[in-house]
Amino acid sequence: MFTSRLLWLGLFAAALSVVFLIGALQLRPEGFQRGPAGTRIAFTGGGGACVECHARTSPGIVEQHARSAHAVEGVTCQDCHEVREDHFAAVEHYGTFVATTPTSATCAQCHLTEVNQFLRSRHALPAWVAMTGVEALENSPEFMALYEQVEERGILDPVRNSLFAMEGPEITRFACAECHGIGRPNPDGSVGNCTSCHLRHEYSLEQARKPETCNACHIGPDHPQFEIYEESPHGIAYATMGHTWHWEAEPGTLTVSDFPAATCAICHISGFGRQGTTHDVGERLSWFLHSEISERRPGWQENAMRMQQVCHECHSQRFVSDFYRDADILTVRINEMVEESQTLMAELQEEGHLTPEPFDQIIDFEYFELWHHWGRTAKFGAWMQGPDYTQWHGVYEMIRSAAHLVEAATELRGHHAPAAASGEAMR
Predict the structure, then answer these.
(1) Region 371-381: what's the mean pLDDT?
(2) Residue 353, SS3 per DSSP
(3) Tell me, what's the pLDDT at 160?
(4) What is the pLDDT confidence band of residue 10, given thresholds at 50, 70 and 90?
(5) Using an 8 Å Cβ cutoff, are 51 and 60 in contact?
(6) What angle do CA 339, 343, 347 make, to 5 degrees?
(7) Other C-beta atoms lying within 10 Å of the C-beta of residue 388
(8) Please, which pLDDT band fits residue 422 given cuts at 50, 70 and 90?
(9) DSSP strands (E only) in 225-309
(10) Can you give the pTM of this predicted structure?
(11) CA end-to-end span of the chain, whole Å?
(12) Is 416:408 a contact under the CB 8 Å cutoff?
């Protein structure tokens, strides 16, 4: 009898311990510091009532934050989300006010250098202006001043902006804005949303460094960098050996021992070898490859030196010099091909065969795709070592589109009255 009672008491104590353990994790989790994969260590980040409630209503974000570097450093939910009542995104929430999506101004409280680098980059206001047009900034001298500091400000093509207007907010909310929102001007005077690249709430180094993160936007017919990367020697190394790389290495310390081949972040952002970390993704680029006619960037020699220092961690001086020489030559040749079609379009415009409105004639689409899709892809393919994209998704398509343009021009000149005259006749 006595032994039986001891057995039942033991089982009851064990069950009670499990209940308390589950309650501690679900109702008042202290969180978990960074540790070996699959382990949990006491979390010092606090969070109080936020953690107690969200452990029940949205436990996933509590778990993510608990595993983050923010948690290790003692950053709480309130540090990022709690705002003043007069904040533009303030929502009353259980006796306080919170912003559900913090802006870069919030991040700048701790990451000022990174935010300032970002503000100089193509990812900031130029990304937004490429969608909306510079008119979106004209009522704000502050945003216009920020925009004027960015190298790309004067080379954005207005034709792309017209697509945004033509499609309307019902579509662009789920299309253009999903990517270009990375540079959105915010009512608090900040620009952009850091969580476009650093996903909440774990803010994992591995996630930010992996190419799939860039794949969210850099994909498709107009800028297929991710697809190009996949077929490149660097991408093949990542696909076959990336699971062995040191994804959580301390920022600014990365070497070939951590990353034996390049990723998007290694080339454009990470501190690697002699290059320090930057959040200006254009800092190491020597051309405006995304332009209709690519031009050299201001200070391109210094930019090229920075990128080549990354390359030299794995490649010889001769290999890098020869590669840059040949890629420069290809860029000039693609410019020439675009210019030939550009001249034809200008002649048709002068002759009155084209309307002043974009995308209201088939030939407008053909020319746009020639440079915006195929020309850019050919250049990206060459610089990122993706031969299929340089050839079949690039130059071949350019040649085909150029033939279509000549055919369309012949038809316009031979069978149609000039566009201006036709419009006058209709009126």
Answers:
(1) 98
(2) coil
(3) 83
(4) low
(5) no
(6) 170
(7) 12
(8) very low
(9) none
(10) 0.86
(11) 106
(12) no
Distance CA 90, CA 100 (A): 8
φ and ψ at residue 246, rounded to 5 degrees: -95, 80
Query: How far, rounded to the nearest angstrom, does the alpha carbon of residue 128 sit from its chain's CA centroid?
Result: 12
The pair of three-digit structure tokens given for residue 99, joined into one six-digit string: 């912003």
| Residue appearing with tokens 């104590």 | 13
Q: Minimal CA–CA distance to 24: which of 34, 16, 13?
A: 16
The type of residue at 182 is I
Closest CA to 181 of 193, 164, 165, 198: 193
Residue 23 is predicted with a pLDDT of 42
| 77, two tokens | 């939910």
Q: Dig out the tokens for 73 from the structure.
A: 């450093």
Judged by DSSP in three states, 186 sits in: coil
- The sign of the torsion formed by the CA atoms of 396, 399, 404, 407 equals negative
- Which helix (H) or strand (E) covers residue 234, if one does? helix 233-241
Q: To 5 degrees, how large is the angle CA 239–CA 242–CA 246? A: 165
Tokens of 88: 């533009």
Residues 245, 274, 191, CA angle at the centre, nearest 5°? Answer: 80
Specify the long-range contacts of residues 114-117, CB closer than 8 Å, at least 24 apart.
114/279, 115/194, 115/279, 117/278, 117/279, 117/280, 117/283
Q: Per-residue pLDDT tens for 170-206?
A: 999 999 999 999 999 999 999 998 999 999 999 999 9
Nearest Cα neighbor of 128 from 184, 187, 167, 172 is 184
Question: Both tokens of residue 91?
Answer: 């929502």
| Residue carrying structure tokens 């995304």 | 290
Which pair of structure tokens corresponds to residue 324?
């840059």
- C-beta separation of 131 from 125 below 8 A: no
Question: What is the token pair recorded at 81?
Answer: 């989300």
CA distances to 289, 334, 407 from 327, in Å: 11, 11, 31
Tell how far CA 195 is from the center of its chain.
Answer: 10
Take residue 336 and report the two structure tokens written for it: 């020439």
Residue 173 is given by DSSP the state T
Instruction: Kindly state the tokens that stand for 223.
Output: 């800028």
Residues 6+ apart with CB under 8 A from 60: none
